[in-house]
Amino acid sequence: MQWTAQFLLSAVSAAQFPKAEAPEIAFLGRSNVGKSSLLNALVGEKAAKVSNTPGRTRAINFFLVLDERRARKMVFADLPGYGYAKISKSISAEWPAFIEPYLAMRATLALCICLVDANIPPRTNDRQLLDWLRAAGRAFVVVATKIDRVSGNQRAQSLAALKRALEVDEILPVSAKTGYGIKELWRKIGEAGNRE
Ligand SMILES: Nc1nc2c(ncn2[C@@H]2O[C@H](COP(=O)(O)OP(=O)(O)O)[C@@H](O)[C@H]2O)c(=O)[nH]1
Ligand SMILES: [Mg+2]
Predict the structure, then answer these.
(1) Range from 51-55, 87-91, 112-116, 188-192 that averages highest in pLDDT
(2) Measured from the CB, is residue 35 less than 6 Å from ligand 1?
(3) Is any atom of ligand 1 closer than 6 Å to the C-beta of 31?
(4) Which residues surround ligand 2, an ion (CB under 5 A)?
């Protein structure tokens, strides 16, 4: 199926969130991990801004995602990245205060896509985020981004290390650059959207 995305709005407080009326998919991960690029790869266009200056986005950017017949509707939420400020010790210390309530309360939130960089060893703040989501009972899928940059024989090793450190059974390798793994990720999104 072909999907299109249109930018809805940029929210810096809960009062600005769009009406909760369609299954929502949130993109979470450290600054520069490839959130906006992955969102664009999923919808096959440049809806979200890909940044060369990490750590800039402090807002949640909402996108309305429609299939070609406009019969199915979803919302993608591009969340602010964490882990940019070098001194911060936890994800919440540097994350805007409205992010945790968003993740805890957003009624339509169907799936959290948690991005980790396949080229970077596991990080504590990624683990903290997953622990938080587990405690909150939120459905999530972990994807390893920029897999095109990892050589073939390194892939299994780097994915295994991430799985171990994050304590997850499955990590989906993806590349926004080559399109690798995008179909599989759409399958997960479709399942989550249908559960709603
Ligand atoms: N090689 C490669 N580079 C990527 C990929 N995804 C993102 N990037 C690059 O990583 C940088 C950060 O991407 P962006 O999507 O803005 O990350 P965000 O801060 O998490 O939204 C940009 O320079 C992208 O071009 C990928 O799959 N492969
Ligand atoms: Mg971004």
Answers:
(1) 112-116
(2) yes
(3) yes
(4) 35-36
The domain tally of the chain equals 1
Q: Which domain holds residue 167?
A: 3-195
Name the closest ligand to CA 181: 1
Question: Could you say which ligand is closest to the alpha carbon of residue 114?
Answer: 1
Task: Give the separation between CA 188 and CA 132, rounded to whole angstroms.
Answer: 21
Pocket flag, ligand 1, residue 34 (CB < 6 Å): yes
Per-residue pLDDT of 130-148, as tens digits, reads 999 999 999 999 999 999 9
Residues 9, 153: Cα–Cα separation, whole Å: 42
The closest ligand to the CA of 40 turns out to be: 1
For residue 166, the domain's CATH number is 3.40.50.300
pLDDT at 87: 44
Q: Among 75, 61, 66, which Cα is nearest to 19's?
A: 75
Cα(175) to centroid(ligand 1), Å: 9
Task: Count Cα neighbours of 78 within 13 Å in the Cβ-side half-sphere.
Answer: 31
Closest CA to 164 of 194, 191, 108, 126: 126
DSSP 3-state of 133? helix
Digit-coded pLDDT (tens) for 89-126? 566 666 778 888 899 999 999 999 999 999 999 888 89
Model-wide pTM > 0.85: yes
